[in-house]
Structure formats: C-alpha cells, structure tokens
Amino acid sequence: MSFSPRARVHLQNIVANWRTIDALVPESKAGAVVKANAYGHGVARVARALHEAGCRTFFVAYVEEGAELRNAIRADATILAFNGADPCDADLVRAHRVTPVLNALPAIRDWLALSDAPDYAVHIDTGMNRLGVRMEDVSGLAGLTACRPPVHVMSHLVDSDDRSRAINVEQLARFKDAASHFPHARKSFANTGGCFMGRDYGFDIVRPGIGLYGGGPPLPDGIELKPGMTLEAPILTVQSVQPGETVGYGATHTFDTARTLATVALGYGDGFLRAAGNKGFASLGGIVCPIVGRVSMDLITIDVTQAADLAKPGAFAQFIGAEVLLEEQARRAGTVGYELVTGLGHRVRRIYD
Ligand SMILES: *Cc1c(COP(=O)(O)O)cnc(C)c1O
C-alpha cells in the first residue's frame, strides 16, 4: 500500500483525443502541444505515444523543453519552441534540432546574423498583443527574411474558449493576410478551441494542447474527449465528527450534523489547488465527497458520509478523472484545467497505463 498521491496517465486516451482532434479538420494535420511536461502528464511518455500514433509536429515553450523532448522521441519529428531562442542558444538548437519560434523583428535580425542560422519559425501577433511580430511589421518581415524565410508561420487565438466572439474572425483575416507573404512556410493557427471553429481555422497544422488531456472549452455536440489522467489520493484515516465541530486549519467549516470524514494524502504541496478548500470535491466509487475545510500542504479532508462503506484507509479517492472532470474541479477553485494539471508536482507519482 502506498500513502502518496498518484496520477494514472491514460496514454491511450491521449492518443484517442489526438485522433479525434486530427479528424476534425481533415485538411490539416494535428500536431501536439506538450509544453510544461505535457501539461503535467509526463512529456517523454506522452510524446512517444503520440509519435507512435503518427504525430510528427510537437510544440513546447522553451528550447530546453525541446531538447528534453528530442532526447525522448525518434528523429523524424519537428519540434517548435514558442518562446523563441537567443543566438547563444544556437548550439542547443542545432544539437537537438529544435525550431525556435521567433517573436519580434530584432530577434529575427539577430538570428539571421548567425553564420549558418538554424531553421526558425515566426509568430505573427494578430490581436493578443503578447508575443509576435505586429501586423504593421509583416511586410518588413517578409523583406528581411526573403533570403532565409521562416519554415513555419503561426499566430494564436485570443478567445478560442468562446467561439462566438468576433475577434476570432478578425484574427483569422489578419492571419490569412500575414501568411500570404510566406507562401512556402507551413502555417498553424488553432489551439484546442480553434480546432472546433471549422476548416478555415485549420491551415497546415493545428496545435491542440489541453484537449489532448481531456480539458478545454465546452465541446461541440457529438465530440467527446477522454480524461488524460486520473488523479487519486489514498485515504489515511477515517473519523466521525459531531454537530458543532470544525475541521482543519482556521476552523473554516463547522458541521451542523454528525458526519464521517476521510483525510487523504494530497495537498497544495503536490500542486493541488489551495483555493479548492470548501469548494472542490472528490469521488469515492462515483459518490461525490465534498472537500471540507482548507486544503493543507499534504492533506485534504473530504466528507465521506454518503460513501462510508467505501471509505477505508488505503482506498483511493479521485480528484481528477472520469468522475471528477478536470474543468469542473478547476472551475470550483476559480481557475482553469490548465493550471490544475500543469501545477501537479513531483510528489504525485505518474503511473502509465
Ligand atoms: C499553449 C499553446 C497552445 C495550446 O493551447 P491549448 O489551448 O492548450 O490547446 C497553442 N498555441 C500556443 C502558441 C500556445 O502557447
């Protein structure tokens, strides 16, 4: 028996989700965004499984992540690093064949000044005002890069969570305009939410991240994505409390009836959300067990009164999975699935099935 939390990572579900998304836009090939340790699922195992399924384009944020990924997968895959590279990263980039996505004209100038500059991609800012070459600089960019054009040109949607927003259509028009300056580059535009917006948004490659792991915006009718992981915490103790008693630090929850509680090994020290105190929930055998009191560093107490038969030391309570949807758990804590899965720390053992 183990008294530490575990994440069972479902590689087959992640591959199935990748195939589902790949089929959404038949003219476009799905890549895979595996930054932040494949959103907490384990980059080496996830990338190898996706590569085996036919994925040949991977996206990370940092070139160091790209180098780690290159060491994990076979040779015939493109790895792009969103946050770009400094010329002093050129050796790392060459050694691991990572393609940096350059995000501003000065960085592109510096890159092209390298002797034998490695391949690079360019991010066009079509409205996020965060990263990328601005629209007014695109024709200058085309001139600057005419003798050594980018191999990949991309942009990123501001609000793919809300498919009805006009800004998506405006960004698409700007991206089409910008992309027309780079006829030989591969193009990508859609993250997970963008993959549900129709063929116009697909271009050559789509860049799903959170959807591969079963999270993201509400799905269109008829589309299903499966959980990328099941996060579970073992019950350490079971105890009964009387009306008027409280639980945990700060006595933030007072019971008005007699309850059965279970304390499990999981906390914010594992990356679970402290904001889920008195708001989030677990599942025991499909029965909802609310989190009562604060989330501590290594412990959470749940109300197992409705599931008292199942609440035994050593039994595992689910905190993310088929019974506790990632986005629902995150929403209750006032955040998004991205933050919950990417935050899970090293103490959560990853088990692959
Ligand atoms: C993280 C990221 C993605 C993936 O987004 P999801 O919403 O997780 O699908 C795609 N493109 C860029 C530029 C990103 O930073």
Topology record:
Layout: E1 6-9, H1 11-24, E2 29-30, E3 32-33, H2 35-39, H3 43-53, E4 57-60, H4 63-72, E5 78-81, H5 90-96, E6 98-102, H6 105-112, E7 121-125, E8 133-134, H7 138-144, E9 152-154, H8 166-179, E10 186-188, H9 192-195, E11 205-206, E12 229-241, E13 246-247, E14 253-254, E15 259-265, E16 281-284, E17 287-290, E18 299-303, E19 316-320, H10 326-332, H11 337-343, E20 349-352
Parallel strand pairs: 1-20, 2-11, 3-4, 4-5, 5-6, 6-7, 7-8, 7-9, 9-10
Antiparallel strand pairs: 1-12, 12-15, 12-19, 13-14, 15-18, 16-17
Pyridoxal-5'-phosphate binds next to loops.
Pick out its properties.
Lyase, Ornithine Decarboxylase, Chain A, domain 1, 353 residues, binds pyridoxal-5'-phosphate, 23% strand, TIM Barrel, 27% helix, 8-stranded parallel β-sheet, elongated, 2 domains, alpha/beta
Describe what you observe in this structure:
With 353 residues, the chain is of the alpha/beta class. The protein has two domains: 11-213, Alanine racemase (TIM Barrel, Alpha-Beta Barrel); 229-352, Beta Barrel (Lyase, Ornithine Decarboxylase, Chain A, domain 1). The chain has eleven helices and 20 strands. The strands form five sheets. Strands 3, 4, 5, 6, 7, 8, 9 and 10 form an eight-stranded parallel β-sheet that branches. Strands 1, 12, 15, 18, 19 and 20 form a six-stranded mixed β-sheet that branches. A two-stranded parallel ribbon has the order 2-11. Helix 1 (11-24) crosses helix 3 (43-53). The mean pLDDT is 97. Bound molecules: pyridoxal-5'-phosphate. Pyridoxal-5'-phosphate is lined by residues 33, 35, 82, 156, 191-192, 207-211. It catalyses: L-alanine = D-alanine. Its EC number is 5.1.1.1. The active site is at residues 35, 249. It comes from Henriciella marina.
